[in-house]
Amino acid sequence: MKITRSHELEKVFLKNMELSLLASGDGTEVIHHRLYEGARWAMIPEEGWTALEHVTILSGELVFHSSDGALLLMPGDSIHSCPVEETSIFAAKTDVEFLYVTSQPQFHYYSNMLQEMKDLAVRVEEKDGYTAHHCERIKNLSMKIGDAIGLSTDEKYTLNLAAFLHDIGKVKVPDDILNKPGKLTDEEYEIMKKHTTWGRETLEQTNRVDLIKAGKVIEQHHERYDGRGYPNGLKGNEITIQAQIITVVDAFDAMTSDRVYRKAMSVDEAFQELERHKGTMFHPDIVDAFFSIQTEVID
């Protein structure tokens, strides 16, 4: 018997989440998860993955979302699958702790992927001159709209990834263009517009199915409902619903943030702009859904 007095072999801190590898051997891992209120975590199916995955709630309240609906999990409750056959999302109703046991190792793969996502997001936030936590705000507001319009768990998982990473392609945009205080020239604007495709290409290079799906959404988040967006001039329902959600939320966050070339609008002014462009720039149903959660937006 092996006794560890440090309580964990390895630990990683992520936004709204802490992961601790408690035990590992013969392909099996025991991972302690701490999710802060409002955080989300998911189990997703993956080709060639045959593991038993088991979750036991230690403290707090965790809402389990699947195709069968939502189920509130309390301390002592457990859930498992072998293998995972559909995307399942866990949302922390309160601060939550749970044990996650998997019969195939994935701690480093999982934690490294999330850490890379975090690093990319931070790099973009700093490079683009936004205040901290821009990507986190986009993700959180997008997920609220996804809940409001009843997206499936699989659609919400893709939305979660795409919203968080929506601007990673901007790491390839030159700083003098990205932070230019004045209006971009036509040539500079053409370079700026490439960030959506660069974002898709970046996620395709990971060879992960879930990130590739998110990359397709990212490429579309500057398309417009009336077909006058970029890079492909898609319109209406040709644009994924996740991209249309991110378009609305990203525009709102941009309008209510100070930028190098202008001061922020008030929240009321930003909502007025969304209403004014409903049906042209923005999907009208998404704007209406955003208005329906307006009280959750204003702190």
Automatic annotation (TrEMBL):
<dbReference type="InterPro" id="IPR011051">
    <property type="entry name" value="RmlC_Cupin_sf"/>
</dbReference>
<dbReference type="InterPro" id="IPR003607">
    <property type="entry name" value="HD/PDEase_dom"/>
</dbReference>
<dbReference type="InterPro" id="IPR006675">
    <property type="entry name" value="HDIG_dom"/>
</dbReference>
<dbReference type="InterPro" id="IPR006674">
    <property type="entry name" value="HD_domain"/>
</dbReference>
<dbReference type="Pfam" id="PF13487">
    <property type="entry name" value="HD_5"/>
</dbReference>
<dbReference type="InterPro" id="IPR037522">
    <property type="entry name" value="HD_GYP_dom"/>
</dbReference>
<feature type="domain" description="HD-GYP">
    <location>
        <begin position="109"/>
        <end position="299"/>
    </location>
</feature>
<feature type="domain" description="HD">
    <location>
        <begin position="131"/>
        <end position="255"/>
    </location>
</feature>
<protein>
    <submittedName>
        <fullName>HD-GYP domain-containing protein</fullName>
    </submittedName>
</protein>
